[in-house]
Amino acid sequence: MEISRYLKPELIKLEMETHIECDPECQLHPEKVLWARKEAILSELVDLLDRSGRVGNKKKFLIDFVNREKKATTGIGHSIAIPHIRTMQAKEFLMGFARSKEGYDFDSLDGEPVHLFFVMAAPPYDDALYLKIFKALAEILQFDYFREELLKVTSEYEVIRAIKRME
Fold first, then answer.
1. What's the pTM?
2. Exposed/middle/buried for 165, CB within 10 Å: 0-12, 13-18, 19+?
């Protein structure tokens, strides 16, 4: 499966910018802090996919991502999260990549910070492509050396080349 053909340089962000400010009352509720962080991160990822010009209603798109995340975390461990949805707000299959060198608490299954975010969206009727890419992505993300390479790349094109080498 050629994952690299679906990842465009404009849909790659080498350093995320999300910063969470939480008032003192919010600090009393760790769950609120987590969801404020997750929603801010998902908002940044939605902004990234919106660069494609292939997102319908951006606000509904974000709501779909948040609702999906509430069902189960997409932080799969090994510093990776793969937020993904099928929604009418995606006009076609979309995939983006964002990285945070510092990492974010994203309620990952292993409890570790997430540094690598692969975000995917597809229309509800596009299951076959969506599932093939998700499976192929999960397979290549198993390799430590590949994840380490993604943490070190210095350009959007290097991300695409790294993925191409794994296909």
1. 0.93
2. exposed
